[in-house]
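re: that complex we talked abt at group meeting.

here r the seqs, copy pasted straight from the sheet so there may be weird spacing, ignore it
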Amino acid sequence: MDRHDTEDKKSAVVERKTPGDALGEMLRAPAAAPLVPTPLETLVPEARQQTPAVRQRATRPDARLHGLGQTKYIDDMYFPGMLYAKIKRAGIASARVLRVDTSEAEKMPGVIAVVTGRDVPCNSFGPSLKDQPVLAGERVFHAGDGVAAVAAVTEQIAAEALEKITVEYEPLTPVLDPLVSLGLETPGVHAPSPNIYGHKVIKKGDVEKGFAASHRIFEASYRTQMVEHVPLEPHCSIAMWDANGRVTIYTTLGRITLGRADLARTLAVPMSRIRIIATVVGGNFGGKNEITTEPVVALLAKKTGRPVKCTYTRPEEFISSTTRHPIVMDYKTGVTKEGRILARTIRLVLEGGAYCSWSETTLAKACILSPGPYDIENIHAEAFVVYTNKTMTGAMRGFGAPQVCFAYESHMDDIAKALDIDPLEIRLRNALREGSLSPTGQQLQSVVVRDTLLQAAQRFGWSGDGAAS
Amino acid sequence: MKRRGRGIACMWYPIGFTVSANPSAAVVKVNEDGTATLLTGTVETGQGSLTILAQIVAEELGIATDDVHVVSADTDTTPMDTGAIASRTTYVTGNAARLAAEKAKKILFEVAAPLLGVKPEHLEVGDHKIRIKGFPQRSLHIGDVAERARGVNGDPPIGSASFNPATAALDAETGQGKPFATYVYATQIAEVEVDDETGEVEVLRIAASHDCGTPINPMLVEGQVEGGISMGVGFALEEEILFDATGRQINPNLTNYIMPTSLDMPKVEVDIVDSYDPTGPFGAKGVGEPTCVPTAAAILNAIHDAVGVRVTSLPATAEKVYAALKAKRAQEGKRLGAGA
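got the structure back, here u go
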């Protein structure tokens, strides 16, 4: 098909769509984009058809669907008889749950089922520590905890039903500061477990010797904030059971293998009876790495015998999904007159929020990466992660690296300025090289940090007078 | 007055999980017409990973990206995968996909070798053909070989494989060991404009040089870098979840939680550095997360360069930069006063 043909067909489609009675037709039509025939051949980009395939700027097959508005996200999915679920949030950071009364909600017309933490067969999960409940049991650990969930015939009725659920709490004093949590003996957020639930040490060489040999020693502290992934598409899942007791769950989850294991645990159902289908995910960035709504809709679907869907609201994305770890970072660095780093000590305190989630790997990555991409002989890095009664932190693009990079690179510039060395030059003098030993003593391969420094400097037009500015 | 400054930041970042196993498995089926199907348990989360995997399988089989259909993200039909996390898909799932394609290719070579009158080890793939190394005129179309493998030899060309990055446990006391199989490196340089009367910061330009090993698809690498920088700009200047004294969030909405829009994006210039990692599929490593790592550091260094204040806590909101400027002026005023 040549270009001329395609254009002819396009104009024919347009003509069909604009007859005299178009208005009446439009009013009767569903509020969805009309299906426009797609001229496949001319839209297929060259790079996708080239060999060899690697290094080609091949377009994504889903890009065309996105561009044409034809992608079906989970919010576009509907099943006959489907119910809508909403989750009641605690709204209190730390409390004992004395009583959950769902009777008024259950009486509402259109409400089909209500579940609480008592209905969850195994009410704990987590990628390493299993410290997170599906819905709160006897305790609330942060304000975003779910305490009950409703399935109703419309989202509005489900939302109204949440207002009819009354929860009686015995408020407890929340722990809100990571440094307070670090020093706290009792009461622990998850007593009797200690507040420090992860600890990592990296020791290389002899830092005292390194500091003793240093021309100057610099010290600085840095802090970062809690941020959200803010995917355009919120967390959502749909569950339905068949007559053989097998559950199918459509979900926005980015990790279905782990998701199935977590569902098998929380629902107490064999893995072979769980099918997870991940839908087209509208943004993840680490935030969709563990189950959220999935066990809740599975329980409500089991109880009602109907498909059940639950979509997080934007506030729920903030208060009930994971966030980025705030970190308090203390650096001490000894350098020669020429700016070579001889020794570096680092202390990191990561705020884990109410649950462990992906803290273990964030802690390890932050600690290992914290000295920076530099060849340093003497390193002592120590990192802690502590519970607080705040929104849980978890996996987020970079796993602690953006935080420590902010610290080690701010520190590097201050050192460069004090020694009157250009910021680019001091980095080149210290950068890891092929075969360098990492802070954990690993011999590194394909090390190109210097190449990136020089390439970016060339692209930017960096001239070596930075120290003076 | 608006003052300009520039700031540099470099970083390193590992591929895959810290020590712990994070395997991926894959299945590759070569169809009778020379196209192929890849089964993978990973999930496309918008980064283009399925296209990358299709390119890797296509490369191994000597066919085009468009010839590979990817089936993903269904626990009933696809093999297990640790998922879209830890910048691991290109490296770990990519290695599994390449190994699975290699196994399917071996079956095709066994079938093609007697037809071409050579041993299987003398064969190679390229341009949809199975051909003799050093003598490419002697070749068979991959589809004809696949059809023969199934219909004559009764050995359909299907390969399955798994891959797990090579790591070694860390010593509990010293943390010494090999936590990751490989690392990537990057530098970003930011140019900012700071209004020294209001503390407002505008990021004008970022030059970003990133290592990802072999770029399987340079366009998708550039997309990741641009997206990562937008997250980095928000982390540096605007985004922050705030809590009241009782531990409840006070800005859980997009009206009061400020994040960058397309209008706040600086001009981004992306370069991909020459690099090859022998342990990655066709030398590839990964790029997803590292793209947002050095951005905030580069911007904060640029603010310091522009107005001489060091903001040590993120985000560097206009209020915070203004307060730092005011404190600096008070300090300078005191010094002037003392001198007079």
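couple things i noticed - DSSP finds six helices and eleven strands in chain B. The longest helix of chain B spans residues 89-116.
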